[in-house]
Write a structure and sequence with these properties.
Elements lengths: L1 E4 L7 H17 L3 E6 L3 H5 L11 H11 L4 E4 L3 H4 L3 H10 L6 E5 L12 H11 L2 E5 L3 E2 L2 E2 L2 H10 L2 H8 L3 E7 L5 H4 L5 E5 L8 E7 L4 E8 L12 E6 L11 E12 L6 H22 L6
Parallel strand pairs: 1-2, 1-4, 2-3, 4-5
Antiparallel strand pairs: 6-7, 8-9, 8-13, 9-12, 10-11, 10-13, 11-12
């Protein structure tokens, strides 16, 4: 078996280099490729207040790995028991204890074991002793700096969706469950699918040009708390108005929405007619943005 291990939050271009190297090595040796990941970021267990908000849900990460060609994934629960294992014990329990591991491929910044003390040098020594090879994939650079989940999170927090997409290798996508609404948008002439976002990290509240689902249906969406019509809302809602045939949906159905470009911040309007006029402008802006970026046909 040829495996790789990491959180892989974002499954960005740097992660993709590691994952593709793993697949290539497995093909070359006729071995089964496997990706080993964690159910959460390690800091979510070790120091919750310092833990970054994840770019992707676990389901999104697993789907991204499967899309690259991995037939299987192993998800480790990163709890305090796992975190407390010394480096060698971690390798024996998480890697060699259950798997017939022939080769392990990791990123240049991979650390493991209690306190993150294990690194690629130690991993190679352990591999030599325990019977598996180790390869380290160097960073993928963009504008002279390594692509990282941290770097992408900063861009997303700024609403810089095209820049984030360049590092991810695709637009950032949010997933959410369809929640029934009051059909107010339909009465205004702009029917929407209302989604409760599941992602931890959300970009700034506002209006976005987006693409919905695997069919990448062009749409415009508002992410926020709807201050014009909903004074009590605390949890953000993603209201999606497709610019063509809407996808089939029903309450409880999950949709994925790729954020192509930030159009404007969310704001409160003095009347529903003023809101409707602005939505008309938003629809026009989304059409222009999707045409200019060539993203209307991508998911």
């Amino acid at each position: 078996m040829v495996a790789t291990i990491g959180v892989f939050d974002g499954v960005h271009r740097g992660h993709q280099a590691i994952l593709r190297e793993t697949l290539a090595a497995a093909r070359a040796t006729g071995a089964l490729p496997l990706v080993i990941t964690f159910d959460r970021h390690p800091l979510a267990t070790l120091a919750p207040r310092l833990a970054p908000r994840s770019l992707m849900t676990l389901d999104q990460r697993l789907a991204g790995m499967a899309a690259l060609g991995f037939p299987a994934a192993c998800v480790l629960r990163f709890d305090r028991r796992l975190a407390a294992l010394p480096a060698e014990a971690f390798v024996r329990r998480a890697l060699t204890g259950r798997l017939h591991l022939a080769h392990l491929i990791v990123g240049y910044d991979f650390h493991f074991g209690r306190g993150g003390r294990g690194d690629a040098v130690l991993l190679a020594k352990l591999g030599s002793r325990l019977g598996f090879g180790v390869a380290v994939v160097p960073p993928v650079l963009a504008a002279g700096e390594p692509i990282s989940s941290t770097r992408i999170r900063r861009l997303v927090a700024l609403g810089a969706m095209p820049a984030a997409a360049r590092l991810l290798g695709r637009p950032l996508a949010l997933t959410g469950l369809h929640r029934p609404g009051r059909r107010l948008a339909r009465r205004l002439g702009f029917p929407t699918i209302n989604l409760q976002p599941e992602n931890e990290l959300l970009p700034p509240f506002g209006v976005y040009a987006v693409a919905v689902g695997d069919a990448a249906r062009p749409a415009v969406a508002n992410l926020g708390v709807r201050p014009t019509v909903d004074r009590r809302r605390r949890l953000p809602l993603l209201e999606v108005h497709t610019l063509g045939t809407p996808p089939a949906s029903r309450p409880g159905r999950r949709h994925q929405v790729a954020l192509i470009r930030f159009l404007r911040p969310e704001r409160k309007f003095q009347s529903l007619s003023a809101l409707a006029r602005q939505i008309t402008r938003d629809v026009a802006a989304a059409r222009r943005a999707l045409h200019l970026t060539g993203s209307a046909g991508r998911g």
